[in-house]
Amino acid sequence: MRGPALSLAFEGRRPWHWMGLDIVMLNAFPDEATRVRAATLPAGLYADGIDVVFRRGSHSVQALKDCSLDIPRGSWATLIGASGCGKSTLLRVFADIVKPTAGTALLHGVSPAEARANRIYALVQQGSTMLPWRSIIDNVALGLEISGLPKSTRYARAEEALALVGLKGFEKSLPSELSGGMRQRAAIARALTLRPRFLLMDEPFGALDEITRDRLHFELLRILEETGATLLLVTHSISEAVILSDKVIVMTPRPGRISEIIEVDFGRGRTPDLRGDPRFVQYEAQLRRALHQPA
Amino acid sequence: MTPSLAPRRVILPVIYGIALLIAWEALAHSGAVSRLVLAGPLEIVVAGVRNWSELGFNAGVTLAQALIGAAIGNVAGLLVAICFVHWGFFRRAVFPLAILCEAIPVVAILPVLILWLGNGMAPKIFVAAFLSFFPMLVNAYRGLSNVDEEVRELLYSYSATASQMLWKVRMPAAVPFMFTALKLSACSSMIASLVAEWLASERGLGFLVVYYGQSYRVADIWSAAILSCLISLGLYGITAACERRALSRSSP
Ligand SMILES: Nc1ncnc2c1ncn2[C@@H]1O[C@H](COP(=O)(O)OP(=O)(O)OP(=O)(O)O)[C@@H](O)[C@H]1O
Ligand SMILES: [Mg+2]
């Protein structure tokens, strides 16, 4: 999968060198055939035949079996399915935390390891863990601190992100002083500060009340549209999946596989009025059927 | 501490303490116990005041040895713990040996230490360091490796280096554990330094105790012992105060 084309394209190792990536890539190859090949590399999230087997001693669990997906750059996908069907595991394969036993995963044409080294994705974890001794703003700015950005930039971006998730005024608070839902929003802000090309989110809205969740859904979509970032999000909520997706990836357990991929055709510029659209109910019903189908 | 509890927490121990001192004084005067066994509190205070310059100088020597030993032992313990966290093979090879060494009754091998290191401050510092080293090693290692799996994954997703992980996550997480070790060493290093002086020395509180003992100066012995006690308590108090300051941020 990774030939000379990629090593050329990723010569500049920093994300900001990649901004005009596609143009650079296409102009870099004088011969037509290579140019065409480079142009057809999956620029979004791509997985082919992913197997994940967890071993503990003689006991082994097949968490994922033959999972393949292709999420074009800038589009939005959600993973949905029963608890334990491997949603988090698939997300963590893209984050380079779980190494697949077999198969290929690519983010913008590069392996998860390279994507991580180049910091092109941001992860929101299921537990929204914070460092308990750091104030919220220092927690939110942690990723930028690790990247070595100067303090003023870090704080400016962290404050911006906190305002976006409605946590203005809690900068100096400690994580223990926040509710679970507020911590979850801080974790989302923490990911947004990185301005990632790929946003990998594991049930980021689980602990939120309906109203905040609604507001954040469309706030997130607005940010995604502005930045052109690609989204992969794990959820248990059928309506959330419909609102946030171009593609809903339905998974079934034991072993975890992708059973169905449902295209949601709401395009861009989605608003809360979406819920009133007759197609919304249809998509929900279709999704519910897919989830209840015996594997 | 709520305001209503504060006086009770102070007053009760003080009342019991005073009652105990009075009983002690009475016991010493009653003639039931020999003067050679137990001196009364007043007598001890008088002895302490009479010998204050001698006591002060020798306490300084013992304290200096304790502090230098504790500093060396704690720093070494922390450094080894950091190595343990980063190099698993080193930990697996060395940790069992370290535990084995901890079982060495260091006081029992004092004569050997004196042969090796002379009868100056060195063997006392060694013993104080030895006794501070293991609590710090074990506690710091526990603290440094006490990192939530999700936090580890988050830092991994940021491609954080091992040293960023150490300074931004492991060290802050280990601070409460390190204070546990420091408080232990606040008491043990003073005792270590004093006990090491018994065998061969020309200075220090331990030397004074032996010297007084040879001439049956019971009240003087007690005054030296109580002074050492007070110094240990002082060290403990300072450490505990630092701990409260350091941890007040993270646990409101
Ligand atoms: N580190 C691991 N070691 C061993 N088994 C694991 C590990 N991580 C996940 N598994 C197993 O893999 C399967 C899928 O787990 P995963 O966390 O991906 O599920 P999930 O779909 O995210 O569930 P949930 O909706 O409850 O979060 C489960 O059977 C789980 O026991
Ligand atoms: Mg999960």
TrEMBL record, chain A:
Pfam families (alphabetical): ABC_tran
Swiss-Prot/TrEMBL keywords: ATP-binding, Nucleotide-binding, Transport
GO molecular function: ATP binding; ATP hydrolysis activity
Keyword NAD belongs to the record: no
UniProt domain ABC transporter: residue ranges: 47-278
Cross-referenced PROSITE patterns: ABC_TRANSPORTER_1 (PS00211), ABC_TRANSPORTER_2 (PS50893)
InterPro entries, sorted: AAA+_ATPase, ABC_transporter-like_ATP-bd, ABC_transporter-like_CS, ABC_transporter_ATP-bind, P-loop_NTPase
Family note: Belongs to the ABC transporter superfamily.
This protein's name: NitT/TauT family transport system ATP-binding protein
Source organism: Faunimonas pinastri
Automatic annotation (TrEMBL), chain B:
Alphabetical GO biological process terms: transmembrane transport
Keywords, sorted A to Z: Cell membrane, Membrane, Transmembrane, Transmembrane helix, Transport
Subcellular compartments: Cell membrane
Domain ABC transmembrane type-1: 59-239
Membrane topology classification: Multi-pass membrane protein
Membrane-spanning residues: 63-85, 97-119, 125-144, 173-201, 221-242
Chief localization: membrane
Pfam family, one: BPD_transp_1
GO cellular-component term (any): plasma membrane
Membrane is among the record's keywords: yes
Record bears the keyword Transmembrane helix: yes
Family: Belongs to the binding-protein-dependent transport system permease family.
Name of the protein: NitT/TauT family transport system permease protein
Gene source species: Faunimonas pinastri
